[in-house]
Amino acid sequence: MSFAVTHFLVPVILIDLIRDHIFKKHRRKLPNKYIFLAGIGGMLPDIDMVVWFALRFFLGDSVPDVHRTFTHTIFFPIALFALTFISYKYVKHKWCYKAAGMIAIGWTIHLILDVVVLGTIMPFYPLSELAIGLNPTLGNCDLDCRVLAGIDATMLILWLIHEEIEHKISDFL
Ligand SMILES: [Zn+2]
After folding, report:
1. pLDDT tens digit string along 143-168?
2. How would you classify the pairing of strands 132-135 and 119-121?
3. Which residues surround ligand 1, an ion (CB under 5 A)?
4. What is the full DSSP assignment across 103-164?
5. If you measure from the C-alpha of residue 111 to the centroid of ligand 1, how many angstroms do you get, rounded to a whole number?
6. Are 106 and 10 in contact (CB under 8 A)?
């Protein structure tokens, strides 16, 4: 979970930058609350760790570790993007497709980050146990934890700098 800040901030920063600099004229169509939802979507796939900890607490050590399996498949983003499309077409409340779309984007970015930065995911689990990852062998927790904590801290500082420039957040301190 030490990676949680990065999983939250990468979708938030990316969508914020795209909205503010590429779709400047349509900025009002995507208020900050939707960007926040993308950040939540970016953290959701690791809910499997929370569930696993809870099950272990109640049922003991025999509970198998399913981290980076069910919630880290391509099926979740596909279902979320399908939900986005369906709500865009058939639901008259616009917030529905915007919310679903933001969660879908956040979820997808989470999977990409896991594949690129550290370890592996099983994109077709449980149909296949094929595991993909660009850095699959980083197994030393001391090193991994420091790398992840470093990425988290760097992301947070960059985001705070961006927010200070764009929104003068130091006025609140
Ligand atoms: Zn993950």
Report:
1. 567 777 788 888 888 888 888 887 77
2. antiparallel
3. 45-46, 114
4. HHHHHHHHHHHHHHHSEEE-TTTTT----EEEETT---HHHHHHHHHHHHHHHHHHHHHHHH
5. 6
6. no
CA of 134 to the centre of ligand 1 (A): 14
pLDDT in tens, 20-74: 889 888 888 899 899 999 999 999 999 988 888 888 889 888 888 888 889 999 9
How far apart, in whole angstroms, are the C-alpha atoms of residue 166 and residue 173?
A: 16
pTM of the model: 0.85
Chain CA centroid to CA 171, Å: 29
The answer to whether 113 and 147 have CB atoms below 8 angstroms apart is no
Rg (CA), the chain: 18
Distance of CA 70 to the CA centre of its chain: 15
